[in-house]
Amino acid sequence: MALPLMPKATAVWLVENTALSFEQIAEFCGMHSLEVQAIADGEVAIGMVGRDPVGNGELTKDEIERCEKNPDLKLQIRIHDLPQPIARAKGPRYTPVTKRGDKPDGIAWLLKNHPELSDAAISRLIGTTKPTIAAVRDKTHWNTSNIKPRSPVLLGLCSQRELEAALSRARRGLPEPELETTTLLETAEDRALAAEQAALEDEEHEEIED
Question: For the chain, what is the domain count?
Fold first, then answer.
C-alpha cells in the first residue's frame, strides 16, 4: 500500500484534526497503533508540525468523514494519474530568508546527535557550506554564543525522509554526492531565488564586519 510522503507528520495532523481511530491512522501511515497513541498522548513527535494530507492531495475530506463514521473502514490514499514533478538532485538548496538564521542550530544538532554524517551530507541536508559547518564544530562561528542545537526537521530545513535517507547512506558507508554549486539553474524562479539568497548573505557578512 502506498504511504503518504511524510507518514509521522501526517499522523500528527490526523490525530489533531480528525476523529479517526488510532488503528485507522496507523494503517494509513504505515505505523503501529501504539506509536499513534503515543503521538496522541504527547510522548512521541513532540513539537512536530503536522502535514495536512488533504491540502497535499493525499486524502479527501469525504474519505476522512467516511472512515470516521465506521472505525472498521480503511483510509484510501489518492493516486495521482498525472506524473509528479521530480525534484532536482543537484545544485544548492534554497532556504527561505526566515529560515537562514536557523541553519547553525540545525548544524549543531546534527553534529551532536549524528556524528556519523559527513560534512557533505550535512551540506546537502541543511543547504550550507563546509566552512560554516567547521565554524560551528570548532565554535568559531560569529554567533556561537547564541547557537542552540535544534532538529533541522523541526526547523523546516529538511524533511524527516531526507534525514533518514542521509543516515542510511552514512551507516552503510555509501559516499554522499558533493553539491554541485555550479549546476545551471533550470528556471527563472530558481535563478531569482538564488540571487536573492546570495545578496542577503553578502549583506549579512557586511553587517558582521561593521
Answer: 2
> Strand, coil or helix: what is 204?
helix
| Residues of the chain by 3-state class (helix, strand, coil), percent to 5 | 50, 0, 50
Number of residues assigned to the chain = 210
Residues 116-163: tens digit of each pLDDT? 999 989 988 888 888 999 999 999 998 899 999 999 888 888 888 889
Decide if 142 is inside a domain: yes
In a domain, 195, yes or no: no
Model confidence pTM above 0.85: no
Asked whether the beta carbons of 79 and 37 are under 8 A apart, the reply is no
Measuring CA to CA, which residue among 63, 66, 8, 71 is closest to residue 40? 8
* HEC per residue, 24-44: HHHHHHCCCHHHHHHHHCCCC
Q: 129: domain range?
A: 97-172
